[in-house]
Design goal:
By secondary structure, this protein is mostly helical. The protein has one domain (3-80). The protein has helices at 3-16, 19-29, 32-51, 57-60, 63-80. The longest helix is centred in the middle third of the chain and has 20 residues, at 32-51. The chain is globular. The chain starts with a helix and ends with a helix.
Length: 81
C-alpha cells in the first residue's frame, strides 16, 4: 500500500468509528503526552489565527483530531512498510 492509500483507507474507517472505537484506537497507539501536545498545539494555533483576524471557533475542537489522524496515519505507514 502507498502512503496515500493508507491515509484514504484510515480516514474512511475513522469516519465510521464511534467514540469507544476512537478511544480504544488512541489508547493503543498514542501516548497521553502526545494527545496533550496535540491539544495544546491546536489551541495555540487557533489563538495565533485569531490574533491575525481569523476566527476558528468551529475548528478549534477539531484541530487536535486532524493532528492525531496525521500521526496515526504515519504510525500505520511505519508498521506496514
Amino acid at each position: 500500500m502507498t502512503g496515500r492509500e493508507i491515509a484514504i483507507e484510515f480516514t474512511e474507517m475513522f469516519d465510521d468509528f464511534d467514540v469507544k472505537d476512537i478511544n480504544t484506537m488512541l489508547a493503543k497507539n498514542v501516548s497521553m503526552d502526545m494527545l496533550e501536545f496535540f491539544a495544546t498545539y491546536a489551541d495555540r494555533f487557533a489563538d495565533d489565527c485569531e490574533k491575525k483576524g481569523l476566527v476558528l471557533d468551529d475548528m478549534r475542537g477539531r484541530l487536535p483530531n486532524l493532528l492525531i489522524i496525521g500521526y496515526i496515519i504515519r504510525v500505520l505507514e511505519e508498521r506496514l512498510t
